[in-house]
Amino acid sequence: KRVRRMVEDQYACWREDLRPALTQCRIRFLDFDELKAADLDWLEAFYRAEVRPVLTPMAIDPAHPFPQLHNRSLNLITELEMAHPGQRLRHLAVVQVPRVLPRLVKLPRDDSQQDYVVLGHLIGHLLEFRITRNSELYIDEEEAANLLKAVENELHNRRKGDAVRLEVDRDCPRQIRQALLGTLHLTEEDMYAIDGPLDPTRLRAVIEGDHSPELHYPAFVAPIAPPLREQPDLFSVIRERDLLLHHPYENFESVVKFLEQAAEDPNVLAIKQTLYRTGGDPRIVGALMNAAKNGNHVTAVVELRARFEEANNIQWARQLEEAGVQVVYGLVGYKIHAKVCLVVRRDDDGIRRYVHLATGNYNPNTARLYTDLSFFTCRVHFGEDATNLFNLLTGICQFQRMHKLLVAPFDLHLRLLRLIEREANHAREGLPARIIAKMNALVDPQIIEALYRASEAGVKIDLIVRGICCLRPGLNDVSHNITVRSIVDRFLEHSRIIYFENACQPEIFICSADWMPRNFHRRLEVAFPIEDGVLRERLISEILATTLADNAKARLLMPDGSYQRARAGKETGERRSQFDFIALAENEVKYRQRREPKVKYARVKLAPRPE
After folding, report:
1. What does the domain layout of the chain look like in residue ranges?
2. pLDDT of 79-106, one tens digit each?
3. Catalytic residue selected from 121, 246, 247, 337
4. CB under 8 Å to 16, separation ≥6 — which residues?
5. Among 17, 52, 468, 502, which residue's beta carbon has the most beta carbons within 10 A?
6. End-to-end CA distance of the chain
7. Among 236, 250, 402, 262, which residue's Cα sits nearest to residue 341?
8. pTM of the model as a whole
9. 525-536: average pLDDT
């Protein structure tokens, strides 16, 4: 019922808010009865030239069984009546609309007016429907002799997965609905009657291109982080001190350049990297292939089961192998979700290991849209831990507790529970205690229970959870010290940060994992501490503080599970965290002069530079 209500709210927003607002901006979506004669003539010519040649109508009768329609493809259906001597025959016909055709047809206009017609309405005014199929991959890794081949075979089977949802046009007659449900082995509960476009994502075509710039956010090109802008040699900068980049406000190109520079550097001996979602941008994978061709020892841990990226990752895995990269697929039974890159380099003073750890994928495309954190270091313990992690992924060695990294499924969950309990003990002893945690989802029951106990002990807990949260804040004597907020804005909030006050000796971690059972127990994830005092101060007083101050796009979770808008105070005014980060990035043209950490957060000394 909740899902159905959410779908209804989604399309009510389209009909009552978005469509009228776009009309006021001279962008209209026209029905056929609103078209002029000239428009109809143009559409008929367009249909005959561009659409009709690629359509294949399929009759449904005993000689023509129901076709195997692709997952989430747009399809059209109608009921045909054929006259035979002495009888009239009725049967259905289906037209699958190829993905190459635009879902919105833009009508020619001489002025700034933009008028569109939905493609499905153009094709004979038929009724639209869409099928969603089960997209799970079922792989027995213990039995699979070749994981790549097993995933590839399952991808083929996915196309024929059982239907799990049917979306139909609201005007679809009952007899056609029943015929579709019977054919797809679905029930009324699985069907959604849609009053609007069946695939709202195709409305993206309206905002693509250069038209209507006033409806877009102001253009933002993330600058290169100041230390890297002044010194293009990343290895020199990382030897100087640890680096923390805040994407997309600081350009992801620095991560790409790190790999490209390593690939071309004759002093680099080896590169090891995890790949989860690389997308279609070839530069990350290209750098690894180039490094292998240059004689470096290159290892890529490719996660073949990254949801809906399986085909991409299979393609990259094959290309990497052909280039001479050693490709492995991680641990049996676990998805490799950690984001780690290790570069082994011969410096003037000996072998040094450079490590990149992150909350986001090695994907330059999504890095422009997601908020994430990148961390560079060459500290000895981080290098040793990264080496041991890759040995775990590529060999059969047992997990050993690491110096700095917390690793799921081995010790991350237990260590987090202990850190939360430590804050609770501090609060019971009257010492400063606080937890701030930012993530995408909070589901794990043991973590939630631990947070409740900490709240009861007096720990102030601020959670920033963009998506699903199973914790109920604000309950008397249970979670009265807990606040939960979600921020949804221009960029997708994706970074994970964990702060523990620890009696004025704070610890702050960056993590690849959300707080969910699957992340703690069925994935390989990494959390790691930020020990440099300058970077710690930035995370606390800049990134976390600015995020918590958001009262424009933040929604506060109530005890009953509802969300309410945060309200701007009279003194603070409106604060929009993502806009504040953009302004900070655009205004900062000189090297960021960091202050010493404030006493209000921690009495800490700057960590020594790596040896």
Report:
1. 2-215, 226-404, 407-587
2. 766 656 656 566 778 888 888 888 889 9
3. 337
4. none
5. 502
6. 59
7. 262
8. 0.86
9. 97
In this structure, which amino acid lies at residue 468? Answer: I
Say which CATH architecture domain 226-404 belongs to.
Answer: 2-Layer Sandwich (3.30)
Q: Give the residue-averaged pLDDT of 347-374.
A: 96
Burial class (CB in 10 A: 0-12, 13-18, 19+), 308: exposed
User: What single-letter amino acid sits at 72?
Assistant: R
CB 460 within 8 A of CB 474: no
Could you tell me if 254 and 224 are in contact, meaning their C-beta atoms sit under 8 angstroms apart?
Answer: yes
> Would 226-404 and 407-587 be classified into the same CATH topology?
yes
What homologous superfamily is domain 407-587 in, according to CATH? Endonuclease Chain A (3.30.870.10)
The DSSP-derived string for 350-379 is: EEEEEEEEESS-S-TTGGGTEEEEEEEE--
337 catalytic, yes or no? yes
Backbone phi, then psi, for 344, in 5-degree steps?
A: -100, 125
Q: Pick from 79-93, 125-139, 211-225, 341-355 the range whose average pLDDT is largest.
A: 341-355
Query: How would you class 284 by CB atoms within 10 Å of its CB: exposed for 0-12, middle for 13-18, buried for 19 or more?
Result: buried
SS3 for 584? Answer: helix
pLDDT over 80 at 436, yes or no: yes
Give how far the C-alpha of residue 357 lies from the chain's centroid of Cα atoms, to the nearest Å.
17
Residue 270 identity: A
